[in-house]
Design brief:
19 helices; 4 domains; five-stranded parallel β-sheet; Rossmann fold; Helicase, Ruva Protein, domain 3; alpha/beta; 16 strands
């Protein structure tokens, strides 16, 4: 698509020169000789870039710039100045000009500054498009489910999203608590700001504090540079703390201060930082029972429990299972470029009568496997029974064609890789007393990549019956 440019200058020779330099099929160039005509043109036509002279009779360039940025803030303006007008050009930059050129300018110089302005405009548009896609994906209307329980959740999301209230999302693992958190953020006034997540279950006490608050160089062994914490990164946006019930008591005290004072101190720092974040927490634990048992601070509990939302278990909203199952089938068929199959009555009956201890996440995984296993236009009970009865190897369809054989071989390879990856992570953690940092270092992996494998297979250090992750010495 051609870029639309407007050249504004009262000197005919400058206009002709700019037209010649920008005589590219990718550009549509209009020209006017005064400020009033420029404003009329800009109001009538959407221009990507305006190239504007500072010194013109009548309405000067700075006044024209001010009107353009007020009426059309997305239009980039490049100012043209004489050598004695540099101070004026600096004022123009403060008023929102993209850049300025000193006359006489080199043709290549003009082309480059126009290309930079257009590239910036393209990137801004891509960011807006991406934000629109993400916001659309996380509209609460797009969370699957029409049951009364989910209707109640939608109503709560709609009420709290436009506010800055702290939200506590409760519910079993796999019920979609993060999806609810994202829906709140992307329907809030902060939707153009960061949405940052922290899984509090995978970090030791010392590492969790560093992750949340950051650290300064030399704060502890291995702190070779300053590191920003998530409260800093999420500033003006939303910070989502998942598995919040696993936070140690000492860290709970520091979090309470952040929530109350809106300020925090990086590990090893002597000064405090301000942070304007909206806090959303989620847990599958009974925090009130933890308060009674003394393992969770009562004052912190009441600070985070401002606006509670309960994410219902899938067995509590069985009416939503067909819609969810078909949604996942369509999703995975699109990814695998396969025709979308039907779900047989027997298979659907099995889905509806299963208790789904892993909730929506388990249903998603089950339908993914069913889509892979089915070789005809029907998902049958046989594609589901062995998976949900806990057999280690679900029965594959015997391939009938060369393409079926390739597909089944691919599935077998993927399953072998999954088994090796799971064993790799579990054995490494056991060798290192469940210390995630040391495990990652031993394998030569980045800590974040090692954690991603843990999350992929639902591996938690507490499930390995080893000691807690040993914090680094300070």
């Amino acid at each position: 698509m051609s870029a639309s440019l407007l050249i504004v200058d009262d000197e005919e020779i400058i206009i002709r020169s700019c037209q010649r330099i920008l005589g590219d099929p990718c550009y549509v160039v209009d020209c006017v000789a005064d400020g009033w005509s420029a404003l009329k043109k800009v109001d009538e036509t959407t221009y990507d870039v305006v190239i504007l002279d500072v010194m013109m009779p009548g309405m000067g360039g700075l006044e024209v710039l001010q009107h353009i940025k007020e009426r059309h803030p997305d239009t980039d303006v490049i100012m043209m100045t004489g050598l004695s007008e540099i101070e004026t050009a600096v004022k123009a930059m403060k008023l929102g000009a993209f850049d300025y050129l000193s006359k006489p300018f080199d043709p290549e110089e003009l082309r480059l500054v126009v290309e930079r302005a257009l590239e910036r405009r393209r990137l801004l548009q891509e960011n807006r498009d991406l934000l629109t896609q993400v916001s659309s994906k996380y509209r609460f209307e797009n969370i699957i489910g029409a049951s009364p329980q989910m209707q109640a959740v939608y109503g709560l999301i709609a009420k709290c999203a436009p506010t800055n209230s702290t939200v506590l999302i409760t519910g079993e693992s796999g019920t979609g608590k993060e999806m609810i958190a994202r829906a709140i953020h992307y329907n809030s006034l902060r939707k153009e700001q960061p949405f940052v997540t922290v899984d509090c279950n995978t970090l030791s006490e010392s590492l969790l504090e560093s992750e949340l608050f950051g650290h300064v160089k030399g704060a502890f062994t291995g702190a070779v540079t300053n590191k920003r914490g998530m409260f800093d990164i999420a500033n003006n946006g939303t910070l989502f703390l998942d598995e919040f019930g696993n936070i140690p008591l000492s860290t709970q005290a520091k979090l309470l201060r952040v929530i109350q004072e809106r300020e925090f101190r990086a590990v090893g720092a002597t000064t405090t930082q301000k942070s304007n974040v909206r806090l959303i927490t989620a847990t599958n634990k009974d925090l009130k029972a933890m308060v009674d048992a003394g393992s969770f601070r009562e004052d912190l509990y009441y600070r985070i429990n401002v606006f509670p939302i309960h994410s219902p278990a899938l067995r509590e909203r069985r009416d939503d299972i067909p819609a969810l199952a078909f949604h996942f089938v369509r999703q995975f068929c699109t990814e695998l470029d396969k025709p979308v199959p039907e779900i047989s009555e027997a298979a659907m009956s099995l889905l509806l009568n299963y208790d789904w201890p892993g909730n929506v996440r388990e249903l998603e995984n089950t339908m993914q496997r069913a889509v892979i296993l089915s070789s005809e236009q029907m998902i049958r009970q046989a594609h589901l029974a062995s998976i949900m009865q806990g057999d280690t190897e679900p029965a594959l369809d015997v391939p009938r064609t060369s393409d079926d054989l390739k597909r089944v071989k691919k599935i077998a390879r993927e399953k072998s890789v999954e088994a090796i990856e799971r064993a790799f992570v579990e054995e490494t953690l056991k060798r290192n007393d469940s210390n995630v940092t040391r495990s990652a270092e031993e394998t030569g992996m980045q800590r974040a990549n090692f954690q991603a494998l843990m999350k992929k297979y639902g591996i938690r250090v507490r499930d390995l019956h080893s000691g807690p992750e040993t914090p680094k010495s300070s």
